[in-house]
Specification:
The complex is a heterodimer of chains A (128) and B (342).
Chain A (H helix, E strand, L loop, with lengths): L7 E5 L3 H13 L3 E5 L2 H11 L3 E7 L7 H11 L5 E5 L7 E3 L5 E6 L4 H13 L3
Parallel strand pairs in A: 1-2, 1-3, 3-4, 4-6
Antiparallel strand pairs in A: 5-6
Helix pairs in contact in A: 2-3
Chain B lengths: L1 H39 L15 H80 L5 H31 L6 E3 L1 H18 L2 E7 L6 E3 L1 H17 L13 E12 L2 E10 L29 H11 L3 E7 L3 E9 L3 H4 L1
The chains are: A alpha/beta (128), B alpha+beta (342).
Chain lengths: 128, 342
């Protein structure tokens, strides 16, 4: 696999162990991974690597800046940003609809490598 | 409130019994007088015999009747009081058990979240090692050991949470107290509640005084009180943060040292800037089963049970509120003197 075909994913989660495990999972699935432990760092990383990041995986509940707020800021940089939400809380609806009418898939933690692979594949192949 | 209910029940029970006996005594007197008048002394007329000085036997009988009546009423009063006490104890036990279940229910969502993080770590590390073996990835012994260490760490973390919940459910209804650092209890409660609150758009902030002395308390009961007060504070925000709104409100948990001359206290306050409590509601907030929440949102026992717990530890629980501004619910616990701690 040549370097320019690697799909890079920005993974954002305030929980260190979740970050470490998910990075390992994504790497083993063949993705390039950037990691941020909070919304502010995520925006900074996205601004720097926007051209190479194909997907942002965002934890919905984080201190200081929630996943939703982070998404709003990311959309200011790139309105077409692809996002997959994660959460440790059970969701009645696996899809998050934001105030602007956009829908985002939610992956509930703890997730397996296979569930992660399915969700990432689904979001990446979805027409934007 | 409960004492008031008990005393009115006792007074009414005693009064009913006494009135019944006195009524029987008077009835006997009147019947006896009427019979005497009509049968034996018809010439005296009905009212001439109401106080028949010559009828000593009758008067003695009435006196005995009244005495027996009073003794019986006393016995009934004692029985009534004991039954009322027993009934109240059963009601209180049921109320506390119900409140504890509610606290555990409130904790459940936070606990599930707290467990999901290490669980994901354990699963992820174990799966990675397994896949590594299956697919013959290049993993050194040191790498594998590192992941095993993380698995054990995360299992210990889960164990700590489970132990805590087990202790909470077993210990919080016990009366035994021990020296407790209140700040540690606040920190543990916040650890379990913070993410759950954040999920609902509410930020928890701790402002803890340093070097607080220990107080005599049951730490799990204190945690139950803090959870009750924090849940009430959460419910004071009219609604959760809307989907794209950042924060619905903020709750501050504050500890401080309170010097009141002869006695020193550790004070804990839960401060919210929610909707506050209406003046007309304030007098009833400690009434068991009184609630302004939606049906099914709470039994209305939280504050009553919290106050009862704090008073059992010789403390005091107070509520200050202004409608539209917010509420501060707090309690103070006495710091044992050097002589008390031996």
């Amino acid at each position: 696999m040549s370097e320019n075909t690697i799909t890079t994913i920005l993974f954002v989660d305030d929980e260190e162990v979740v970050g470490q495990v998910t990075k390992m999972m994504l790497a083993s699935l063949g993705y390039g991974v950037l990691f941020a432990s909070n919304g502010v760092d995520a925006i900074e990383l996205y601004r720097e690597h926007q051209a190479e990041i194909s997907l942002v995986i965002l934890d919905m509940v984080m201190p200081e800046m929630s996943g939703i707020k982070c998404l709003q800021k990311l959309k200011e940089i790139n309105s077409g940003v692809r996002v997959l939400f994660t959460t440790g809380y059970m969701q009645e609806n696996p899809v998050k609809k934001t105030d602007d009418g956009a829908c985002y898939q939610i992956l509930t933690k703890p997730f397996s490598r296979e569930q992660l692979a399915d969700a990432v594949g689904h979001v990446l192949t979805k027409p934007s | 409130m409960a004492n008031k209910a008990r005393s009115s029940s006792e007074v009414w029970g005693t009064a009913k019994t006494s009135l019944a006996v006195v009524f029987l005594a008077l009835l006997y007197w009147v019947v006896e007088s009427v019979v005497d008048t009509l049968v034996f002394f018809p010439e005296l007329g009905l009212f001439g015999n109401l106080l028949p000085g010559s009828h000593e036997v009758t008067m003695r009988l009435i006196a005995i009747f009244l005495l027996v009546g009073l003794l019986l009423s006393y016995q009934y009063a004692i029985k009534d009081r004991d039954e009322a006490k027993k009934k109240l104890q059963i009601q209180q036990t049921a109320a506390i058990a119900s409140d504890r279940l509610k606290s555990l229910g409130e904790m459940a969502s936070g606990i599930a979240h707290e467990l999901s993080q290490p669980l994901m770590g354990i699963r992820g590390f174990a799966e990675h090692v397994m896949l590594g073996f299956d697919r013959q990835w290049d993993m050194s012994q040191a790498d594998i050991r590192k992941m095993m260490v993380r698995i054990v760490e995360q299992a210990d973390r889960m164990n700590h949470i489970v132990d805590h919940v087990r202790m909470f459910s077993m210990e919080s209804n016990r009366l035994e107290v021990r020296p407790v650092q209140v700040n540690e209890v606040i920190t543990m409660s916040v650890e379990l509640m913070a993410t759950h609150m954040r999920h609902r758009g509410i930020e928890l902030e701790c402002v803890l005084a340093e070097d607080l002395p220990k107080v005599s308390a049951n730490p799990f009961s204190l945690e139950e009180v803090l959870m009750n007060l924090t849940t009430n504070a959460r419910d004071a925000f009219r609604k959760e943060a809307s989907s794209d709104q950042e924060v619905a409100g903020k709750i501050v948990l504050r500890s401080s040292l309170l010097d009141e001359g002869e006695e020193t206290f550790v004070k804990v306050e839960v401060v919210d800037d929610g909707m506050g409590i209406a003046d007309e509601v304030m007098p009833r907030i400690f009434d068991p089963f009184f609630t302004t929440k939606e049906p099914g949102s709470g039994a209305g026992l939280g504050l009553a049970v919290a106050r009862s717990i704090i008073e059992k530890m010789d403390g005091e629980l107070t509520v200050q509120s202004q409608e539209g501004v917010g509420t501060t619910t707090g309690f103070k616990l006495p710091v044992p003197s050097a002589a008390d701690t031996g």
